[in-house]
Every structure is written in structure tokens, then in C-alpha cells.
């Protein structure tokens, strides 16, 4: 189960990476709040149009449906044929979600943003800001993500367990 959860966690991470890449590239104002303060202050983004805001909402909604749908599908495939405890379902979901939290820190934040800093992550007007090399900022985000990951995993596993209990098992 652990190896399966880790593999599916990497697949889930790839979905998140695609989602974040599109948001940062096409709708950067949607992610600005996740950047360090010096970047937020220096950013010179034009005010998004009504159409851009709508497109961002449509993409975000579709992305969240795909991402949440995939973690539910992973669990259904894992547990459809045999009854398990809530805690086993939770552990499976938690491993998948924490895999993304770790990939987000190590790959997206530290490697892509802090080390490589490709042009697509740099918000217009923020070139040269120190926040792009702030490893501690991203580590704090990872720790906060650990709390959110635990809470989200409990909620998702609870929903899945109810689906299993009343519809599948």
C-alpha cells in the first residue's frame, strides 16, 4: 500500500505541478499572495479583465475537480475490493498528499524557484527580488502545508470512507 500511495502521490504531484504552472503563467495575480512579501510589494501586474478573472475561476474550478477527483479515484481503486478501517484509508490519502507537499517544497520551491528561477515564475516588476532565493520562506510554507495536508487528508478520507461504507462495501 505504501509504494502504491507514493507512486500515486507522484502522479498527484504532476497534476499539481501542471495546475500551478498554468496558474502562474496565465493568471499570476491568482498566486501573488503565495510569494514572499518583497515580491508582492514590487509586483507590477495589470489589473485582470473581467474575462481573465472568469477564465481563472473556470480553470481553477476544473483543476480542483481533476485533482480532488484523482485522489478519490486512487483510493477507490486501492480499496474497492476489500473493506479497510478509516485509518488505513486516511494513511493512504495522507501519504499521497504529503508526497505533493514534499515535492512542492523540494522541486517546485527550492529547485525551480530558488535555484533555477525560470522566467515564468518571475512576476513582472520583481526581477532581482531577494524573495526568489528565500529557502526559509518556502520551508515555513511546507510546515503550514503539513497542517493543511493533515486536515485535508482527514476530510478527504472521511468522505471516501463514507462512500466506501455506504456505497461500495
| Proportion of residues in extended strands | under 5%
Number of helices: 5
How much helical structure, as a percent, in the residues? over 70%
* Morphology: elongated
Oligomer: single chain
Q: What is the domain tally?
A: 1
Question: Could you walk me through the main structural features you see in this protein, from its secondary elements to its overall organization?
Answer:
- 75% of the residues lie in helices and 0% in strands.
- The protein has 169 residues and is mostly helical.
- It has one domain.
- The protein is elongated.
Observed structural traits:
75% helix, mainly alpha, 169 residues, single chain
Short synopsis of the structure:
The protein is mostly helical.
How are the elements arranged and paired?
Elements: H1 2-26, H2 37-42, H3 50-79, H4 86-116, H5 135-168
Helix pairs in contact: 1-3, 1-4, 4-5
Amino acid at each position: 500500500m505504501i509504494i502504491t500511495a507514493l507512486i500515486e502521490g507522484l502522479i498527484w504531484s504532476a497534476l499539481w505541478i501542471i495546475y500551478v504552472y498554468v496558474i502562474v503563467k496565465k493568471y499570476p495575480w491568482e498566486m501573488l499572495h503565495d510569494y514572499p512579501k518583497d515580491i508582492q510589494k514590487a509586483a507590477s501586474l495589470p489589473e485582470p479583465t473581467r474575462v481573465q478573472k472568469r477564465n481563472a475561476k473556470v480553470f481553477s474550478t476544473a483543476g480542483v475537480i481533476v485533482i480532488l477527483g484523482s485522489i478519490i479515484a486512487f483510493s477507490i481503486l486501492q480499496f474497492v475490493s476489500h473493506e479497510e478501517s478509516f485509518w488505513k484509508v486516511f494513511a493512504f490519502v495522507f501519504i499521497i498528499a504529503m508526497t505533493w507537499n514534499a515535492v512542492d517544497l523540494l522541486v517546485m520551491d527550492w529547485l525551480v524557484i530558488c535555484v533555477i528561477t525560470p522566467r515564468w515564475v518571475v512576476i513582472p516588476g520583481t526581477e532581482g527580488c531577494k524573495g526568489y532565493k528565500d529557502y526559509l520562506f518556502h520551508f515555513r510554507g511546507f510546515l503550514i502545508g503539513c497542517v493543511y495536508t493533515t486536515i485535508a487528508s482527514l476530510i478527504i478520507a472521511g468522505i471516501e470512507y463514507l462512500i466506501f461504507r455506504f456505497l461500495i462495501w
